[in-house]
């Protein structure tokens, strides 16, 4: 009986194992979305020049702009073109309309332009529910036209979904699609399965974080390193999740499994973080956008996969190439871009170890500073530790020295934190200080106060095994290293007597 049961289990697993065989052998890629709601939109030739300079080899267009497709010809850049939502009804109702669309927008450009996918609409099930009944018809009609042209194995057909079609997304093992969508979702997934296509999913941890009312930690949304006790654990599978992105992708996998589809890979068609917001969106910032996208790129290109499918590629398109100043809505809606319309980076990414995509790599231009909203006493304790057991040279903070002004705990702590961060080679976890520090790409140097990360002192430190302070450490120090040498030394002595050198992180 046992051997029969083992055989049955193996037979049940075989389709699942085969389903992801091609994904496991494929390298994950990072692409970009190219929106055009820009008042001074660069020409298609300029766009392609930027793509080449940044070594971006995968793009998604929100339409099938003829000039853009011509500019992409002979570049080998892999292109996903889209059927806009306003054309969905016509294509979904008429096979001939779909065939004409393929003839005009696909056949006239391949093989010179390397079109590899067609996205039918965008988030149709959540933004155009009345058009939902025609979505699968549109996909089938477009696919039939590709079959007739013998292009169906080269060009896949799918449709991007909002992650909000997934209900109860955590724990991922309990996630399921909105059941009211089953009449569309089941034939849609069958189409993807039958044609060897993939499930297109838009994943925005920024919105998950904003809507969570504090339940989701910012570090968890930004891929920042978490201590094991801060990781989210799926109680059903015991899988550990260190970031929102993986949890949402796995929620999609489990949702498909709930409908008995276990062999459709996920491609993330949109993900990113806004670099600017209004007063109600303080976490839409340059630093957070940089942190999220830099970490996302590394995560994807390392072929990490997800806890449910480790090592299985989750290729992702960053939203987006340019800031779109003409987009309606809040300030953040206009500020998702990696570049402004002149091709100048909105922020300088730190991407060492991520391969060659996005060439504006300046990992050495990162700094560690105190968080503005951190508890002042905790910042003071961390400052005392850095200048004591942390073995940071804090003499620039003494009165009449270059970094004495501004004479505040936060300013002095920022210098000390950055000195420690670079002393430790900018290793993961060395800019934390019990949660009161953060990594930034904005140089905090001012006047004659040059921070270690600016290069003036970079590389002059020797490595130390001392690690930054933990929440278990205590300090009775109240020094700001701001009065005189005697005050500094007194504080240092007190700090050494009262602070533990146990791990702070």
From TrEMBL:
One of its GO terms (biological process) is defense response. GO terms for cellular component: plasma membrane; plasmodesma; side of membrane. The keyword Lipoprotein applies. Pfam families: Glyco_hydro_17, X8. It is found in: Cell membrane. Keywords: Cell membrane, Disulfide bond, Glycoprotein, Glycosidase, GPI-anchor, Hydrolase, Lipoprotein, Membrane, Plant defense, Signal. One of its GO terms (molecular function) is glucan endo-1,3-beta-D-glucosidase activity. Residues 1-19 form the signal peptide. It comes from the Eukaryota. Residues 366-451 form the X8 domain. It catalyses: Hydrolysis of (1->3)-beta-D-glucosidic linkages in (1->3)-beta-D-glucans. It is a lipid-anchor; GPI-anchor. Its EC number is 3.2.1.39. Belongs to the glycosyl hydrolase 17 family. This is glucan endo-1,3-beta-D-glucosidase. It comes from Solanum tuberosum (Potato).
């Amino acid at each position: 009986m046992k051997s029969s049961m083992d055989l049955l289990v193996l037979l049940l697993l075989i389709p699942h194992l085969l389903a992801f065989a091609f994904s496991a052998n494929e390298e994950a890629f990072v692409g970009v979305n190219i929106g055009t709601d820009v008042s001074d939109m660069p020409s298609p030739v300029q766009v392609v020049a930027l793509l080449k300079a940044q070594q971006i080899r995968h793009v998604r267009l929100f339409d099938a702009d003829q000039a853009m497709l011509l500019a992409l010809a002979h570049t080998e850049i892999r292109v996903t073109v889209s059927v806009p939502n306003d054309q969905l009804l016509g294509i979904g109702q008429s096979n001939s309309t779909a065939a004409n669309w393929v003839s005009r927008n696909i056949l006239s450009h391949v093989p010179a332009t390397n079109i590899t996918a067609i996205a039918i609409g965008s988030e149709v099930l959540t933004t155009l529910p009345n058009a939902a009944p025609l979505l699968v018809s549109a996909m089938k009609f477009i696919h039939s036209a590709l079959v007739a042209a013998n292009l169906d194995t080269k060009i896949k057909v799918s449709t991007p979904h909002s992650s909000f079609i997934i209900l109860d997304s955590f724990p991922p093992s309990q996630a399921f699609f909105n059941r009211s969508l089953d009449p569309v979702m089941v034939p849609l997934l069958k189409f993807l399965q039958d044609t060897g296509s993939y499930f297109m999913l838009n994943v925005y941890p920024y919105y998950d974080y904003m809507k969570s009312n504090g339940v989701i930690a910012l570090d968890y949304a930004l891929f920042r390193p978490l201590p094991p006790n801060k990781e989210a654990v799926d109680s059903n599978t015991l899988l550990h999740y260190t970031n929102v992105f993986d949890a949402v992708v796995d929620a999609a996998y489990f949702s498909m499994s709930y409908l008995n589809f276990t062999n459709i890979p996920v491609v993330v068609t949109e993900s990113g973080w806004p670099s600017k917001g209004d007063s109600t969106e303080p976490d839409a910032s340059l630093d957070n956008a940089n942190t999220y996208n830099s970490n996302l790129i590394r995560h994807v290109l390392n072929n990490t996969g997800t806890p449910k499918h480790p090592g299985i590629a989750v290729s992702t398109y960053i939203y987006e190439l340019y800031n779109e100043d003409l987009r309606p809505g809040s300030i953040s809606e206009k500020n998702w871009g990696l570049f402004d319309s002149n091709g100048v980076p909105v922020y300088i990414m730190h991407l060492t170890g991520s391969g060659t995509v996005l060439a504006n790599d300046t990992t050495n231009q990162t700094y560690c500073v105190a968080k503005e909203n951190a508890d002042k006493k905790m910042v003071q304790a961390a400052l005392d530790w850095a200048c004591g057991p942390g073995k940071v040279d804090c003499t620039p903070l003494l009165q009449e020295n270059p970094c004495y002004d501004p004479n505040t705990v936060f300013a002095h702590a920022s210098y000390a934190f950055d000195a420690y961060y670079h002393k430790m080679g900018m290793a993961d976890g060395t800019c934390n200080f019990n949660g009161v520090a953060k990594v930034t790409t904005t140089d905090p140097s001012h006047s004659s106060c040059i921070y270690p990360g600016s290069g003036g002192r970079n590389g002059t430190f020797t490595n130390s095994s001392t690690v930054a302070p933990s929440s278990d450490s205590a300090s009775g120090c109240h020094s700001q290293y701001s009065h005189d040498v005697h005050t500094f030394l007194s504080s240092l002595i007190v700090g050494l007597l009262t602070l533990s050198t146990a791990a702070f992180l």
